[in-house]
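[step 3/7] inverse_fold.run input=structure_tokens len=526
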């Protein structure tokens, strides 16, 4: 399977990109610039090192590191050797990572010791997890030398060991990887139980994200600042992989810092800046923004159930973006929907667009199709639906029905245009006196209040009604928001059963690595 002139596999595509865009900068980190040709050479060395270490086709290799060039090189190297990539969340503690390694049967771990408190030595203190398949730990800098050597080999020594493998052997191994082979196993966040490993083939990924490049209008020569973490689909597939598909330049950002982002946009003339809504809000609110040259910015890609319409308007009016798009995706099916060029701010903010090419998206209420505007579960069918959950056939059968429809667990409504609006997770829905309440709907309404910057709504127990809503609010800077007045404001604008019965003010929300509010932590601290 070849995608618009790309190779049949991710490593084949990357090899072709190295030849086609040879002198174009592929990755820029500070003063270090890797051209596409140089990136290709380093990938080949990493592939040789994987082979020298005994990595075979079908093995799993995990990466636990921040956004950096070695992440890309290691990923393409292991895929060139025929292994499947297992990204690990950099916010995970050793016990959580040990679970992923044991569950995937990873043969090797490439880790950046010291980043954000990552402690690879702590993995082996969790004797409840079977790490017998883990044969080698490779430590990329920065790392404390003593710790690095005590748990494995350094990245430099690992690459040196690969010099014994002939280039022809590397080339042959890469060519043996085909479109139907599993290229990666991304573990879900575990919000519906224990994390499950989502298997995607090389061909699926290449086709999905070639379409994504068209959706986002990513072009050859673009300069893409990647804030979204590489361990997530947004930073990996809709990030550096998309850049390789189009010949764009990757600017990895390990930790979001608005001053650093503004510096890079101005100095490097960044053209593409995707991220969660909070990224754009922070940029817009920065006191020095108007004095910075941000004129190069062309593309913004964001997504969330609760984007303020006013934020999209400000992005259009106060920033130079020519293309602002939102979409809906999930690990099990990639990007499923997207807004279109020319959509108005309200459509961009309150919907996630319509189905991507060759995918079917529908909303159902039980066994019947939901009417336009009626809430139901979002189902997806098409080439991008996962190959299944790793080593979990029962869970796969529960998620994908006999007709090939993926049951996402997300609630949504579809309008007459075929545009989807996400109402939240099924598990987040709560029932007030017999009425279904969808948090995203209330959150969107709350964002219409001039003093509300962020909103998160959860259901809490109530003796009389069973459950009622509690709204957590981050006020706008300088606003003196009164909870009782906000509740009264809600009563004027929504049905009584939807009105939050309590409001809790917060300075900030706990967010996961992709910018989503962690509602369980909000409740735990209330």
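[step 3/7] decode complete -> sequence:
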């Amino acid at each position: 399977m070849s995608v618009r002139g790309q190779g049949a596999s991710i490593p084949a595509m990357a090899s072709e990109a190295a030849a086609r865009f040879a002198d174009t900068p592929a990755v820029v980190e500070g003063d270090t610039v890797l051209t596409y040709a140089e990136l290709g050479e380093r990938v080949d060395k990493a592939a040789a090192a994987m082979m020298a270490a005994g990595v075979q086709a079908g093995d799993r290799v995990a990466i636990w590191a921040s956004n950096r060039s070695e992440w890309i090189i290691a990923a393409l190297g292991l895929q060139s050797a025929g292994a499947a990539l297992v990204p690990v969340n950099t916010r995970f503690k050793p016990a959580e990572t040990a679970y992923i390694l044991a569950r995937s049967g990873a043969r090797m771990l490439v880790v950046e010791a010291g980043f954000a408190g990552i402690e690879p030595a702590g993995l082996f203190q969790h004797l409840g997890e079977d790490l017998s398949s883990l044969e080698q730990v490779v430590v990329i800098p920065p790392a404390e030398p003593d710790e690095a050597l005590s748990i494995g080999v350094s990245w430099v020594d690992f690459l040196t060991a690969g010099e014994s493998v002939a280039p022809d052997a590397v080339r042959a191994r890469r060519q043996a990887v085909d479109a139907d082979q599993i290229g990666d196993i991304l573990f879900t966040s575990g919000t519906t139980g224990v994390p499950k490993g989502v298997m995607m083939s090389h061909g699926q990924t290449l086709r999905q994200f070639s379409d994504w490049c068209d959706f986002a209008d990513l072009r050859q020569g673009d300069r893409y600042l990647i804030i979204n973490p590489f361990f997530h689909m947004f930073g990996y597939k809709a990030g550096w992989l998309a850049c390789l598909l189009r010949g764009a330049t990757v600017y990895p950002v390990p930790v979001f810092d608005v001053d650093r982002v503004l510096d890079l946009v101005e100095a490097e003339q960044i053209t593409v800046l995707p991220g969660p809504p909070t990224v754009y809000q922070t940029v817009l609110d920065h006191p020095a923004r108007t004095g910075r040259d941000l004129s190069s910015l062309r593309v913004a890609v964001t997504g969330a159930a609760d984007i303020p319409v006013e934020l999209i308007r400000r992005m259009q009016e106060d920033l130079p973006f020519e293309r602002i798009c939102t979409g809906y995706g999930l690990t099990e099916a990639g990007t499923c929907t997207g807004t279109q060029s020319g959509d108005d701010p309200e459509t961009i903010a309150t919907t996630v667009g319509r189905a991507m090419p060759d995918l079917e998206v529908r909303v159902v209420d039980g066994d019947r199709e939901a009417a336009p505007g009626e809430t139901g579960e979002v189902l997806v069918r098409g080439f991008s639906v996962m190959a299944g959950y790793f080593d979990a056939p029962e869970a796969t059968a529960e998620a994908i029905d006999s007709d090939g429809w993926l049951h996402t667990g997300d609630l949504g409504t579809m309008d007459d245009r075929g545009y989807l609006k996400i109402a939240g997770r099924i598990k987040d829905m709560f029932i007030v006196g017999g009425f279904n309440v969808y948090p995203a709907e209330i959150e969107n309404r709350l964002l219409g209040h001039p003093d509300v910057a962020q909103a998160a709504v959860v259901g809490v127990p109530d003796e009389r009604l069973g459950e009622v809503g509690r709204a957590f609010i981050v006020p706008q800077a300088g606003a003196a928001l009164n909870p009782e007045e906000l509740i009264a404001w809600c009563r004027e604008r929504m049905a009584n059963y939807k009105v939050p019965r309590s409001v809790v003010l917060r300075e900030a929300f706990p967010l996961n690595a992709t910018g989503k509010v962690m509602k369980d932590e909000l409740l735990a601290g209330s």
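[step 4/7] annotate
The radius of gyration is 23 Å.
The mean pLDDT is 92.
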